[in-house]
Amino acid sequence: MRARLERLLGIGVADVRDLGSSHSWTLHRASLDDGREVFVKAAADQAGVFAAEAAGLRWLGEAGPGTPVPEVLGADDRLLLLPWLPSAAPSRDAAERLGRELAALHTGNRPDAYGAPWDGFIADLPLDNTLDDGGWPRWYAERRLEPFLRIGARHLSQDDVRLIERVMAEIEELAGPPEPPSRIHGDLWSGNVQWTDDRALLIDPAAHGGHRETDLAMMALFGTPHLDTVLAAYDEAAPLADGWRGRVPLHQLHPLLVHVALFGGSYRASLVDAARASLG
Q1: Which residue pairs, CB below 8 angstroms and at least 24 apart, start in 127-130?
Q2: Per-residue pLDDT tens for 24-42?
Q3: pTM of model > 0.90
Q4: Which of 13, 60, 90, 186 could be 195's S-S partner, Cβ–Cβ 3.0 to 4.6 Å?
Q5: Rounded to an integer, what distance in angstroms lies between the CA atom of residue 24 and that of residue 21?
Q6: Using N-to-C axis directions, what is the helix angle for 227-237 and 92-107, rounded to 10°?
């Protein structure tokens, strides 16, 4: 690994420490000869996953200056390299800044279509990023809900499946006012928000052109520190459409289906509750 890191970075590596594993890859912290620290993801063969993550971070960074994502230092079929981000306790000041920067990410340099020009992944599951310049509701139903409903159906009852299918059938009426595509993180649960001394940075994206309410709903799903502060700053910078809070469960259906696909029936009740709430 040290030799591979040196080839990617063009500098000597003094030390590599193991940090455990996540999904099908391992995590490491490398010290470089120039004093920098680097975060490393490594796997025997994760070309698609690491390529998608690197492409997503770079693409999010194209939204404009101040985008809250780290720089990609290097990537190949076995490694992804990012700057080491020192952790700090979440603060209200950093949360307010995150709300403003997330609003700028979503509304600056918007993409032309929903989806992305690369094969996507969420965790290590394939994610259909087929580009579509039509409306978001049908794209969400066909590219996010239906594929993961097929994968997770073995953990659901027939009534559960029919409930999700009803949401998909009524998606046009449930989705709220039309929104143009935004550059979204796509997997913005609290574990993918890295808090540092003065700001928060977004890591591990499933980035694509999507609906900006999706990122906010994902932040609410598993709890994000100072979320009320983040949302207030966001709404002040880029006001949300009327009724957005009522649409949170609709946007949570996809990540909950992903969790059913990955972890089984333990997420079934949350999925069913969100589907019922989506239908009002």
Answers
A1: 127/52, 127/186, 127/206, 127/208, 129/208
A2: 889 999 999 999 999 999 9
A3: yes
A4: 90
A5: 7
A6: 40
